[in-house]
Each structure stands twice: as C-alpha cells, then as structure tokens.
Amino acid sequence: MNLVVGHQHTKSIFIKAKENNRIAHCYLLHGRESIGKILFAMETGRMLRCTNKSNYNNCNCQPCSQYNNNGGELQTTLIQQENLSIRTVKDVINPNAQLAVAHNNNSWNIIIIENIHLANNETANAMLKTLEEPGEHTVIFLTTSSLNDVLPTIISRSTVVPMQTLSHDNVNEIYKQIDQNQDQDSNHHSNHHSLQQKLRDELYDGTMGAQKIDANIYFQTCDIVENILNGTPGGVQQMLDLLWKLDDKLTFRHICTATYKKCLDNYSKNMEHINIIMFADHILELLNRCDYNINLETVKLDFLSKLATLTPTPSSG
Are 250 and 299 in contact (CB under 8 A)? Predict the structure, then answer.
C-alpha cells in the first residue's frame, strides 16, 4: 500500500467531509509538481470506501483489501495528461462519471484527471456538465501545478483544495519506503542508494522532484564546476569532454541543474565574484529553453561559450 506521507491539513479536510457526509462532487487539488497529488486523490478514494474508519492509515477491511489487490481500481478512473483530449472526455470521462453505484456510504466511483490546466477550451467545455452534475456517489479529482492556468469555468465548478510542499522528514520517509521496496542484492545497489540520498539532501525543495535527476552525472558535474571555480588546471576541458559527445537533452538538463546549483552555492560564499551569478542566470535561461524543441548542439555551444566567464579573475596587487 502506498500510504500518503504528510499533507495532514489536507487529509483533515476530507476526513471531516466524510464524517459529516458532505463530500463534494468535484475537487481541484493544486500545488507544486512532485508532491503526490495523484496518490493523494487515489488514497482519498480508498479512504472514502473504507469501512473501518481508518482514514489514511493501513487497513484490512474488504474495500481496502480489494483496492490493495487492484480490485478496487475497477471504480477508479485515472486520466493522465497525455490522454486528456476531447475524445477521452466523450468516450471515457463522461460515461464513467455516470456509472451506477450501489447506494451505501462506502461505494464510491472515483475519477482522477491529471494536470487539468492543460485542457483547452473545447476539452473543458465537453466536461463542464459532468463536473457540475456527475452521477450519484461519484467524486472527480482534478489536479494542477498551475492554478492560474486553469480555466475559470472549471474552477467555478470545483472545490479548490491547496496542497503544501512536503517537509524534509516527509521526503526522507517516502524515499525510505521506495528503497525498502527495491531489490538490495548487490553492493552497487547500496552505493546507488547512498548517492541518491546525498542527491536528495542536496536538492531538497519540498517535492519528490530530486529523484528525477541522475545522481552520478549530477555529482560529476558539481566536481567539474568546483574545479573551474577554483581555477584547477583542466577543469574547462573536463566540462568540454562531458558535453562534446552528449546527445541526450535530459542529461544536458541534469548537467545544467547541477551547474546552476553549484554556482549559487559558490556565489553565496564569494559574492564579489559577480561573474558566477551572471553565468548562473545564463544557465537558468538554458534550462528554460530546454523545454522547447531546440537543437541540442546549439544550447551546448551556448553553454560552452559562456564557460570562460566562470574562471576567476586574478586579483591585482
């Protein structure tokens, strides 16, 4: 069972709604990326069906056991962002929202739609009636990391629920669960975990996003940037070698992320070296450009062309 870690205030909202029999027909969960909005929606569906009033804790009642064995997912429809289209609305979301559900307090039809801010006007209009009047004992969860981009017609039909970032202890607890579920047969696996833990501490920002970075390339890049900033001979050549044959945009993003973080760390220690923050701003711009369909060779050369500015200027006198 993937229990929801943290989010105590948000949990209390739904626990109280269940106790008072005041479950809304549509909730809009909003908060930063990688804080567990989809998992929260799925676990809330399980909590609503639970007969033992265990709320978000472990439970062995029949509905929870069925859910844990995937049987409960027969009443859970998850629409991921790549499938959010008008065809999906007409063929999946709208029909499923009107499914007949047994009339008891523990039968719920759950529909979860990821990143609702990506819905265009046509797609949104096709689901407005469903959001306003889904079938009895049907709850729709919408998620977004960009509330300002959600169409007003959708917001007006939803109960808006904010979700906060996670504490450092929460993130470590989640990663501990992940690590325990993975194979631990070899020393390499153990070393990988220690590297990932170091990465989590390095990049912690209240989300689970750190796991998306390749730890090996991250710390290799940090070492190279440190060499360049310290004026170590061969530092620039190391970065050139790292980037020269690189043909993967995601790895390039990881290199930029590590470089940006290392630059900020060093600037905080040496604020007279203004070139560091100027280079960091340039890397941040490259990270933003990576989200567009641009030529990788172009951004690599752009990165390298600014690299010389990182080299500390010898002090006079």
Answer: no
